[in-house]
What we know:
Pfam families: AraC_binding, HTH_18. Keywords: DNA-binding, Transcription, Transcription regulation. By secondary structure, the chain is an alpha+beta fold. 47% of the residues lie in helices and 25% in strands. The strands form two sheets. Strands 1, 3, 6, 8, 9 and 10 form a six-stranded antiparallel β-sheet that branches. It is elongated.
Amino acid sequence: MLTPGELASYLNKLVISILLVGHQKTEADWHQSTRKIKHHSVWLIIKGKGSFTINGTHYPAEPGKIFFFSPGMVVERGTDPDNPIEYYFLRFHYTETYEEKEQWIHRPACDCPFPLDGMYTLLNTPQLIYLMEQLEILWKRRGHMTAMRRKILLQEFFLALISDFRAQKMAGATTSAIELTQDYMVGHYKEPLTLEGLAAMAGLSVSHYSRLFKKFIGYSPIDYLTHLRVDRAKELLVLSDYRLKSIAGSVGYSDEFYFSRIFKKMTGMSPRDYAKKHRYSLPTS
Length: 285
């Protein structure tokens, strides 16, 4: 898939003309048998559940999904009888027309494939539903100013779609940064890690990093690190005869007494009591 910037650049070169806009509520037995698509169209699913097959690949048709169909696609579409789908559709054609170095470039649709095809997932479906709804209202009206307004709304629709993709990409990049630090903690919990160092690794401010880590992982970064260390300490207490000071050092605590306080706070018992209860007696230090 093109990046949001590349997609905007491509769409900016197209002149798009609307052929039809509509809103459809399917019946429980609605099913379109396999057919070859003749026109470019976009379907925005707003209610219900169904299944679309495009060139042999199955896709869920449900709220939050948008489909772009292109001529030549082999498509089969159907709904869930217990929860029929409802959708907006827009049929269109286009040509590529733009100016470059004081020269006008013209290419028909057959020479420049539409940059979107198949299924996409949306974050902000309500905004796109609103724009489709307004396009359908304007489609029922006539007049030159109305036609101009339709063109503007269509541009707003594609801009909203690109913005949605960009938001998803940014969220994905942030999630990856959080997961990077999570993995780093798993592999380096013995080291003297700091909140500032982890935030820098993620490329975020300390406050922003802390908020996002808690949102995605469920713990604050320091709580997560403490859980890793205590969980490893539990294993060592049960499966080894290492002294308490040695175990504390092996999970990132230079002070065995501080480690004992943390361990008791997390587990409700001292390291020695935990070891006695679960298997071995812990040697005295």
